[in-house]
Amino acid sequence: MNSESADSPKEVSNTRGELIMEPSPLELPANTVRRIASELRCHPTDERVALRLDEEDKLRHFRECFYIPKMQDLPPIDLSLVNKDEEAIYFLGNSLGLQPKMVKTYLEEELDKWAKMGAYGHDVGKRPWIIGDETILGLMTDIVGANEKEIALMNGLTVNLHLLLLSFFKPTPKRYKILLEAKAFPSDHYAIESQLQLHGLNIEKSMRLIKPREGEETLRLEDILEVIENEGDSIAVILFSGLHFYTGQLFNMPAITKAGQAKGCLVGFDLAHAVGNVELHLHEWGVDFACWCSYKYLNAGAGGLAGAFVHEKHAYTIKPALVGWFGHELSTRFKMDNKLQLIPGVNGFRISNPPILLVCSLHASLEIFRQATMKALRRKSILLTGYLEYMIKHHFSQDKAETKKTVVNIITPSRIEDRGCQLTLTFSIPIKYIFQELEKRGVVCDKRDPNGIRVAPVPLYNSFHDVYKFINLFISALDSAETKIVEFSIAT
């Protein structure tokens, strides 16, 4: 297997017979950078390389579909360090995606309809309110790799996770555990704790946490599969994140799904950091259930409408534990006879009418995804993040330690098929000052305890020149941070 090749994943078996996601061979990002530098007769870190990469980027025009924050509008900015009229370096799409320009238009359409015709808006227009969520389902299918009947757009992520676990987690005296990462996102951790408590189970015995090996940041696939093989008979549900929020590790979902189901476990994923970031094939992989938010890579705005997936194989066997009016078949919903005709599958899990204003913002973003396609976005993302990785390693890797006081480590896996667009950086000096200096210079990223700064160049609206500018600002920020640390140590 060429572990560093790049393209959309295909399912193949490795030498151990494990199902893995292996891309088709393409030129490696580092080789692309070096090839272009050779053509231009310049150093690979030269600005001309970034500009050429942008020229060759067939997706570059999608940046125009989004509002890019200006330097002058960012609260922590130091205007003495930047050009206030320039666009910020926004590498925080892993936390909150940027606003599509069509959001305002779609919101105004529904507000105008409400103002002019009141309740008639439930039945007319491009997004009749009574089926507002259903009108955009078709735009989600390719993003998660499922058919419309397997997808519901509703609620928030953790609400959906609770609704799904209430139906999929049915513990027995022999099979009562839930398997998850030890450092899962707190929301998932809390949800699982509360589900176990709801069933009167001992959390320490029933919550099976899997940790990376000593001295390692990420989980090895073989360790995950070993736990499943050895303890699978006592595990009821496996719930992993598709892509880890802190490390940026992309888990091998088809392999985990296959291994779990072979042991009789139900397998689900929290796709908050995977959806809109990497290619997903939930139906093909046979994943039992999944849920996701829409405000990160799906750009639907803070608190955006979340999603849920239930594989069609469960449509008539897994039913919602909590039922509402919108889980009733539309054709007889308004008979009001209180005789439930439950919609099979995930749409039976819907409880309330869709929030049409949230539908609008998600609609605007999903239309862009339909035009760009996940396949093309993933291909660009591999090169974009690979270029960022190349630049960081050139300037800050361990072998530069003699000339640079600060060493920058990338804890996100280096293998393309083990990550999305995010790189998580750790440092040989405290990150507090580094982060402050980045913010002053208009770099929008975030820090996460214990020692990580997450940077995520998003292929829909970030450019290769963004990466080039980021590196220069990063160098400046580190220099200033090092100076402050020295001054602080002298003063104390």
From TrEMBL:
<dbReference type="GO" id="GO:0005737">
    <property type="term" value="C:cytoplasm"/>
</dbReference>
<dbReference type="InterPro" id="IPR015422">
    <property type="entry name" value="PyrdxlP-dep_Trfase_small"/>
</dbReference>
<feature type="region of interest" description="Disordered">
    <location>
        <begin position="1"/>
        <end position="23"/>
    </location>
</feature>
<protein>
    <recommendedName>
        <fullName>Kynureninase</fullName>
        <ecNumber>3.7.1.3</ecNumber>
    </recommendedName>
</protein>
<feature type="binding site">
    <location>
        <position position="325"/>
    </location>
    <ligand>
        <name>pyridoxal 5'-phosphate</name>
    </ligand>
</feature>
<dbReference type="GO" id="GO:0034354">
    <property type="term" value="P:'de novo' NAD+ biosynthetic process from L-tryptophan"/>
</dbReference>
<keyword id="KW-0662">Pyridine nucleotide biosynthesis</keyword>
<dbReference type="InterPro" id="IPR015424">
    <property type="entry name" value="PyrdxlP-dep_Trfase"/>
</dbReference>
<dbReference type="InterPro" id="IPR015421">
    <property type="entry name" value="PyrdxlP-dep_Trfase_major"/>
</dbReference>
<feature type="binding site">
    <location>
        <position position="241"/>
    </location>
    <ligand>
        <name>pyridoxal 5'-phosphate</name>
    </ligand>
</feature>
<keyword id="KW-0663">Pyridoxal phosphate</keyword>
<comment type="function">
    <text>Catalyzes the cleavage of L-kynurenine (L-Kyn) and L-3-hydroxykynurenine (L-3OHKyn) into anthranilic acid (AA) and 3-hydroxyanthranilic acid (3-OHAA), respectively. Has a preference for the L-3-hydroxy form. Also has cysteine-conjugate-beta-lyase activity.</text>
</comment>
<feature type="binding site">
    <location>
        <position position="295"/>
    </location>
    <ligand>
        <name>pyridoxal 5'-phosphate</name>
    </ligand>
</feature>
<keyword id="KW-0378">Hydrolase</keyword>
<feature type="binding site">
    <location>
        <begin position="185"/>
        <end position="188"/>
    </location>
    <ligand>
        <name>pyridoxal 5'-phosphate</name>
    </ligand>
</feature>
<dbReference type="GO" id="GO:0030170">
    <property type="term" value="F:pyridoxal phosphate binding"/>
</dbReference>
<dbReference type="GO" id="GO:0097053">
    <property type="term" value="P:L-kynurenine catabolic process"/>
</dbReference>
<feature type="binding site">
    <location>
        <position position="270"/>
    </location>
    <ligand>
        <name>pyridoxal 5'-phosphate</name>
    </ligand>
</feature>
<dbReference type="GO" id="GO:0019441">
    <property type="term" value="P:L-tryptophan catabolic process to kynurenine"/>
</dbReference>
<feature type="binding site">
    <location>
        <position position="157"/>
    </location>
    <ligand>
        <name>pyridoxal 5'-phosphate</name>
    </ligand>
</feature>
<dbReference type="InterPro" id="IPR010111">
    <property type="entry name" value="Kynureninase"/>
</dbReference>
<comment type="similarity">
    <text>Belongs to the kynureninase family.</text>
</comment>
<feature type="binding site">
    <location>
        <position position="158"/>
    </location>
    <ligand>
        <name>pyridoxal 5'-phosphate</name>
    </ligand>
</feature>
<keyword id="KW-0963">Cytoplasm</keyword>
<feature type="compositionally biased region" description="Polar residues">
    <location>
        <begin position="1"/>
        <end position="16"/>
    </location>
</feature>
<dbReference type="Pfam" id="PF22580">
    <property type="entry name" value="KYNU_C"/>
</dbReference>
<dbReference type="GO" id="GO:0030429">
    <property type="term" value="F:kynureninase activity"/>
</dbReference>
<feature type="binding site">
    <location>
        <position position="353"/>
    </location>
    <ligand>
        <name>pyridoxal 5'-phosphate</name>
    </ligand>
</feature>
<keyword id="KW-0007">Acetylation</keyword>
<dbReference type="GO" id="GO:0019805">
    <property type="term" value="P:quinolinate biosynthetic process"/>
</dbReference>
<feature type="modified residue" description="N6-(pyridoxal phosphate)lysine">
    <location>
        <position position="296"/>
    </location>
</feature>
<comment type="pathway">
    <text>Cofactor biosynthesis; NAD(+) biosynthesis; quinolinate from L-kynurenine: step 2/3.</text>
</comment>
<feature type="binding site">
    <location>
        <position position="273"/>
    </location>
    <ligand>
        <name>pyridoxal 5'-phosphate</name>
    </ligand>
</feature>
<dbReference type="GO" id="GO:0043420">
    <property type="term" value="P:anthranilate metabolic process"/>
</dbReference>
<comment type="subunit">
    <text>Homodimer.</text>
</comment>
<comment type="pathway">
    <text>Amino-acid degradation; L-kynurenine degradation; L-alanine and anthranilate from L-kynurenine: step 1/1.</text>
</comment>
